[in-house]
Amino acid sequence: MRIRDLIHKDSWPLYIATAVLLIPVFILGRHLLLDTGGAFSLPRDEAFLQLSTAKTLAFQRIWGIGYDDFAPASPSLLYPLVLAVTFFICGVYLALVPIVNTAIAIILLTVIHRWLTKKGVTPVNRLLILLAVILLAPLPLMVLYGMESPLLMLFAFLFLSRLADEWDLPEFSRRTMIYGALMVASRYDGALLVAGVCLLLLWRRKWLTAFELALWCLLPVLAFGIISMFKGSYFLPNIFMVEPAGSLLSYDWIVGCAAAVIVPLLSGYFSRRPARKVPRAAGLSALIIILALTTRNLYAFRESEHSSLGTHRLKYPIAQFAHRYYYRYGIVSNDIGMISFLTEGRYLDLSGLASTKITRSRVDNFLSPGLINQLSKEQNSQVAIISDRYNKTLPGNWIRTGEWEMTGYDPSEKRTVSFYAMDSSAANRLRKNLEEYTHFLPQALTVQYFYTPPVEKGNP
Predict the structure, then answer these.
(1) Reported pTM
(2) 138 preceded by cis ω (within 30°)?
(3) pLDDT, tens digit, 9 for 90 and up, residues 370-400
(4) Which candidate, 343, 334, 321, 281, places its Cα nearest to that of 429?
(5) Using CB atoms within 10 A of its CB, is residue 398 exposed (0-12), middle (13-18) or buried (19+)?
């Protein structure tokens, strides 16, 4: 888009919508920084797995969070690549994540505004549609969550808008196919939208077009799946193997795209022509949907800051401890996200998201303490950091050295983390590190020790 188009007088809806997007992002970000003493955080640990993948990909050319394990832990292929390029150019800084997502969100609004302008939609309706996309998705939270949703929404809209323009043509353009491929690469569940379009094409007896569209859109998934199997992993990322399928589906981007249809339906017209009469039932249904989404999103806005602060209080001290004492050592954990982002080394993720061998053992149901002990020895692990969410048996020869009981945003939200060493020498060092690090821990954190180093001969 030319610069003169951006400063055109009819672009004021885009400027207002951009301001509406940025204001809550700045407000929520500022409140979080004030509460954490200037340390930015993300509300979901899954986001840190994507950031760790991007960091390793940028500097080690390995798709995974560790230096020697090809282990796809992200439901997106394109988003870690975007972050990897950013980290390679600017360095690995957590503050870059909301900046990248904000840029993607602004591009999304610009693309929607440009398409609506071409369709002859009035400036007022353009503003309503953009505000609906921002507030009903909600786009500001997508920016701050550090996930791939803004990128997915961008390519979903590009794909759908091109389909709308080319639906009655004999075949789709290559650009439409590429947008579909980028949408699926942004997040795997974008394939559901492609499947819906292909079913409509089959219903219209466009067999060849449906096959070509499916092949193009699934090409990134097919190529990455073949590479992943060649590397010894699964065709799909590990997260799809160890988590329930329903819990992985992202609905917010669908809500954001649907909002562009709901508001024009409620207003009664798309262009400068006189308003069309909207059926009362349709208008009432749209109003109920908007009110329900608005209520949900107001609650989500209120809880987002609490979630980010809770994640910071529960996981940041652990990750900082690992960064200070085990920066390049092998680490075992069932919450490896933030730890892997702040350290470099070899990791054994007991959740299975970022360790293919653990994933395979969980899928085949033969995960055992003996296997965990064997894998930890293979990567020369020095410490295991296990939260109380892990409900399986650990190796009996591990030495439980210490325990932290931490409080999240809500005082009633507590989590216990235990520190294990693999032998007595590692336990001596771990006990010393835990004692030294107590000076940096918040006062609300409770420390307990279970291992006492033996007294050396000649010392009292």
Answers:
(1) 0.84
(2) yes
(3) 999 999 998 888 999 999 888 788 998 999 9
(4) 321
(5) buried
* In the chain, domain spans: 3-305, 307-449
**313, 32 Cβ separation under 8 angstroms:** no
Neighbours of 380 (CB within 10 A): 11
Assigned token pair, 134: 């921002």
Backbone angles phi, psi at 239, to 5 degrees: -60, -30
Q: Where are the alpha helices (DSSP H) in 38-186?
A: 45-60, 78-90, 96-118, 123-136, 139-145, 149-166, 174-186
DSSP 38: S
Chain position carrying tokens 């819990």: 247
C-beta of residue 56 within 8 angstroms of C-beta of residue 66: yes
Return the residue matching tokens 């999103």.
297
Say if CB 251 and CB 272 are below 8 A apart.
no
10 Å CB burial of residue 459 (0-12, 13-18, 19+) is exposed
Give the closest residue to 126 by CA, choosing from 264, 266, 312: 264
Max intra-chain CA distance, the chain: 97
